[in-house]
Amino acid sequence: MDAGRVGAQGGRMMLASSTPMHAGSRASSSSATCLWIGRYVPYPINEGMKLYSAKLVESVARSGIFVRALGFGDLGHAPAIKGVQWIAVPGERGRDLSGIVNRLPLAAAVDATPEYKDLLDRQLREHWDVIVFDSYASGWALDRCRRYRTAQNTQALLVHVSHNHETAVWRSMAQHSNASPVHRWLMRRNAIKVAQLERDLATNVDLVTTITDEDANALSTTSNAAPTLTLMPGYDGPIAAPRMIAHRTPRRVVIVGSFNWVVKRENLTRFVQHADPIFARHDIELLVAGEMPEELRTSLEAKCRASTFRGFVSDLAPLLAESRIAIVPELIGGGFKLKFLDYFFGRVPVATVSAAAAGIPAALREQLLMGEDIAALTQTIVDHIDDLDALNRRQATVFEQAATLFRWEDRGAQLHSELDALRAKRWDTEDHRLLGS
Question: In sequence order, which ranges of 80-207 are alpha helices (DSSP H)?
Answer without folding.
Answer: 106-111, 114-123, 142-151, 166-176, 181-204
